Amino acid sequence: MPSFTPKQLVLLVALTIVWGLNWPVMKLGVQHFPPLSFRMVSMWIGLPILAVFVTTKGLPLTIPRSYWGQLAKLTLFNMVLWHCLIIIAIPTLSSGRAAILGYTMPIFSAVFGSLFFKDKLSLRAWAGVGAAFLGVLLLLWHEVGALGSKPLGVILMLIAAAGWAWGTQLLRRAEAPVPLMTLSLWMVAITTVVLTVLAFVFERKQWHAPDQSALAAIAFNGVLVLGFAQAVWFYLARSLPPVASTLSVMMIPVLGVFVGAWWLGEVLHWQDWTAVCLMVVAIASVLWPSKS
To answer: What percent of the chain has pLDDT over 90?
Structure first.
């Protein structure tokens, strides 16, 4: 099993907190602003932050033309599908349940890695996948009725999760001719343009000045989620084995569930508490050192 450096662990904790808090933040934001436009404005805030970081590090800003096709594929699965689909689905689901559906990604990733990329998963890793899957089922226990009446939101979240999982596998194996941060900058830039076009086409008649709640949610997304956490995730996805970099962030939906309950008044049941224990087991399956 993989060992984690102190830097990786610190970044993992920071990523978990930012992304976990963001589910109720996004839910609040899209209640006060059109969803695609909400994400678009957030991306326009995060993009220059990434650009400044790349520039100050002296990293190249261009990508060879021969790599553009690969860049487009990585962007589609790692960024475009995820950002577009989840923000459309969130208004139809509670923030906690949206987080749970989104973070079926580690299950998809582990299975994709084993089936299509010949990753050899240990029995302990498969036990972690199983625990995470059972945790997801328990957390969805009280959403069965909602799933029947709101299938579109659920389908969109699952497609987004599967796409992100596939993109993570591709990203880990990509032989990029430029540093990872340059690649990240271009993926965010392309996604920002796509979201801008979609928001203009579908939501321009709904555009209005965001209120205080929407502004705060947009700022959180732009600065922390896109300016910081997105780059951290790309670093972890490439520097750690897929099962570690994915299962180890399963605490994000747990945090999203409980913050949503505390902040937005979403009701918790015994299944939620049991699922926390299962998520901890899943995380331990990849974080706990193996005997040498």
So the answer is: 42
pLDDT in tens, 76-88: 999 999 999 999 9
**What is the pTM for the complete model shown?**
0.85
Length of the chain: 292
In 3D space, the residue among 171, 165, 86, 164 whose CA is nearest the CA of residue 129 turns out to be 165
Integer-rounded Cα Rg, in Å, for the chain is 18
3-state secondary structure the chain: CCCCCHHHHHHHHHHHHHHHHHHHHHHHHHCCCCHHHHHHHHHHHHHHHHHHHHHHCCCCCCCCHHHHHHHHHHHHHHHHHHHHHHHHHHHHCCHHHHHHHHCCHHHHHHHHHHHHCCCCCCHHHHHHHHHHHHHHHHHCHHHHHHHHHCHHHHHHHHHHHHHHHHHHHHHHHCCCCCCHHHHHHHHHHHHHHHHHHHHHHHHHHHCCCCCHHHHHHHHHHHHHHHHHHHHHHHHHHHHCCHHHHHHCCCHHHHHHHHHHHHHHCCCCCHHHHHHHHHHHHHHHHHHCCCCC
pLDDT at 149 over 70: no
Q: Which residue shows structure tokens 């580690």? A: 106
